[in-house]
């Protein structure tokens, strides 16, 4: 397992980082978000379309529609969403609709062991000789590479941005290192490099975990406190989380330890990212899942010449994977697109 302390000496001090801080949204800004997606004619939503047919996993698409009512292919950009721990691809629905209404084609998928891979059938869903119900980050990453490769082949002149939240930041950074030619930008939202120790020592978390630890490392432990209390302090975000039946709320201790090891690899991939990919780094000022010092450490390790760090002072951990997404989060993303060369207001002929 990677130690954050061991890697700290290779990174610039956090005090040298230029941090942009934003305050909370207003009621007018909340209304603006709803107005952007008030018309279904602005986009088409497809579940389990052409990419599912090829990849054999759940996928989701939010496709911009031209004013004349036909599907357009002159997109401003394509955003491929990578979900976090316990989450699933459809958690990006609200943000994806906003982006689609502004001519960004959005695509998401469910990793192995999460979302409909886990919940679709009570029986194991078999892909080859392994079950889709089992968490497997390596095989999930291969599916991401296949997905991005298919998108790049179909839209060779349209810029592609990866957006990963929390655990989803690790595969995005791995892509930036190993498949740089496939992507044009990265957005990392609340990127995790280790699980906050509070998940292990908080009385509620400890109580949920005690029995599985005593009985067997393969026995499921509950994550109710983590999911319902730690992911956000905002009441509307909490309500949104509680109503989602496809969020996974039980994992084994072995899966949790593997997850810890996997997110720690972000600190291995980060220093290996080349200097050219534009990168937006967003964190919540009240994040209870990712330690602020860990987020700064990861940011300082990434050598990109085009990186930006934004701290949303009033926000918690879940920034983008919620139907209660905040205006300051949305404006941060669009401001970055507006100032980042591959995604500025240009139309590229594809298809």
Number of H- or I-type helical stretches: 15
Our measurement of the CA-to-CA distance between the termini, rounded to an integer number of angstroms, reads 45 Å
- Rg to the nearest angstrom? 19 Å
Can you summarize the main beta sheet? 9 strands, mixed
Give the strand content.
Answer: 15-25%
At the fourth CATH level, what is the homologous superfamily?
Alpha/Beta hydrolase fold, catalytic domain
- Text of the CATH class: Alpha Beta
- Mean pLDDT figure: 82
Shape: globular
For this structure, the CATH topology is: Rossmann fold
Order of helices and strands: HEHEHEEHEHEEHEHEHHEHHEHHEHEH
Number of domains: 1
Strand order of the largest sheet: 1-13-12-9-8-4-5-3-2
